[in-house]
Structure formats: C-alpha cells, structure tokens
User: What shape does this take?
Amino acid sequence: MTRLSYCTNVAPAESVDELLAGLHGLWTEVRRLVAPEGTLGLGLWLPDDAARALCRDPGRMREVRAALTDERLELVTVNAFPARAFHAAVVKEAVYVPAWTEPERFAYTSAVARTVAGIAPQGADVTLSTLPLGYPKLAMPDQLRAGALLLAAVLELHRLRELTGTTIRLAIEPEPCCAIETVQELIEFFGVCVRPVVRHLVAAGIPESAAGDVVRRHLGACLDLCHLAVEHEDPVEAMARLQAADVPVFKVQVSAAVEVSEPADAANRAALARFAEPRWLHQVGAGNGLVVLDLPQALADASFAKSKPWRVHFHVPLHEAEVGGLPTTRPEVARFLRHVATLDEPPVLEIETYTWSVVPGASADLAENVANEIAWVRRELAEG
Assistant: This one.
C-alpha cells in the first residue's frame, strides 16, 4: 500500500510550541478537508531547535505524540534536510548548512532520529530525508568524511531500532548544483564512499554477515521529482537504476517544476521573472545538460536562453496544469504516480510544495491549497 504524506515545512515551525500549534491548527484543518473520518499522513519537518528540545524532554515528546493521536495525524516520514530558518527572508545556500562533512549535521540528524523514536508508535517505520552531503561539489577526502559521518548515523539508527523497535531509514536527496546532484552521482557515492567503510560497523560490534543488511536497512535514497526534472532525468528510470545498483529508494518527494520550451521568448521571460523570488534557490536546468544555480542568473545570461527547454526548481502546485502562465512537469509526475501505484513495495510518498507563500497568483488559503494537492495525487494513484 502506498503511504502518502504532506511535508509540514510549508509552514514555519522552529520551536516545539510552534510545531504543536501547527498540528492542532493547520494540519487538523487539512485532515478535516481530505479525510474527515480518517487520518492524514504527515512528513514532519523537525528543525534543529525543536529536535534538540524534544529529544531531551520525554514530557514534550509525549505532548507531540498525543497531538498526533488526538488529531488523527500519522507520522509517515520526516524532512531533516533544512536544519533551521527555512522561512527566513533569505535562505538560498544556507539551506545546505551544516553539511555532512561537519559533526553538527550528525548531531542534528541524531537529535531528529531520537525524537522520532520517542514520538512514533512502537514498531513504526519512518524515513528521514537528508541533504546530498552539501554544497557545492566535494573533493574526495570530504566525500569520504561525509560517508564516515553517515555510517556513524547508520550505526545510531541500528542501535535505536534494537532499543525501541522503531526503524528509521536515512535517505539522501540529490539536488541540482549540490555535492550529489544526479542519480549517477548517488550511485557512485554509494560505491566509493559507503560500501567500502562497512567494515567500521563490524568494528563497532555488528557481525560481518549482518553489516551489509544494516546499511541497506538504514541508508538509501530520497528522490525529489522536481530535482529530477531540472536534471532532465526520467523518474521511473531513475528509481530502477538505483534499485539495480542496490541503493534502496525509501522515499519520493512528489513535486513539479516549471517548464519552458522557449526561454528566449519575451512573454515567457516576463512570466519567469515572477518566479525569481529572493528566499529560496531556483536552479535552472537546460535540455543540453547545463544547470545554473539560480533563476536570476539564468535570466541574465542571454547565451543560456538558447539552451532549451528550461526546467526551473520551483515546487509548483501539483493540481494546476499551469502556474503563473507557464506549464509544469505535472504530466511527468502523474506518469510516475501511476507507475508507483503498480508496485508491490512502493516508496513512501511526500508532497513537498513548500513554496506556497511565493507562488505567483496563489490563493492565500493554505489549508485548501494543500487539500487540493492531496486530492490530485490520490486521483493519479487511483489511476495506476
């Protein structure tokens, strides 16, 4: 059965009090719209301050667990990519801080995992997505350092599972212009930097025959359909390639990109300019394989406009065929969802349209917007 969720990073919630307010407020309202008699799956965003406060305070963890239960909200997955201030006035490259080369990223991820183990039902299976090591590209020594810290996280997740019965799976999410931006780069990272250091798990006391299984259980991939679109990668093929390379796909973020077939056209450029907002990065990928870090840079480069089509990393509403007068990669998302619906063991799905506050022409009713996206995804899954 496909497990569907919506990522709560669409709304600011840096503290435990803000998290609880959202569970009792926005997310309860969404659940009443889409499942008045049922439950709503959530992809919980746990920023650094909230995670550190929760993992040290069993009483506060009980509050969150009770809120989820009372409001009929299911913890399906967790987004641990942005560590803090995801709704600051300007985020841009700060979203990649700290990187997996820094102990602070391990500490944050550990706090999130311990919180999940404390608030999830006993025996739960929860995927935790994380950034693609960092930004920008990393030299091999830094990749190996990141791999070692990721393996330390795997070891902690293994021990949490033995202690609590909760399985937490860490999923690396490729993103354009980052240290790991394509499916091929993720496969190479696993081959060069992950599997060769499995011996460290053996040194930590895990039997050699079981060490590989521990890694496969706790470390895999998160595919973001918008990111894949910007890289012009086919999502069905991408998932198959990862699985063939023995990299499990734990989670898929269901998201669409802006698509422009003629980026040099004056009307299209005027429409694109409305998406060039100052908060988040909006990488632009052209059909010839070139990728530019942000939309304003792409619009300022006359020669890049000749490289077409463009796909823009701007998570746009899934239920709308056009946004801001421009088409999206929604047809590709629909095709992928229908494929996933046929799988015996589908990955966790998380709708992640965190951009509602800056979508050109969007309604201000966030609960209704979210509900409309969930309804669209459910219809596409039903067509599979």
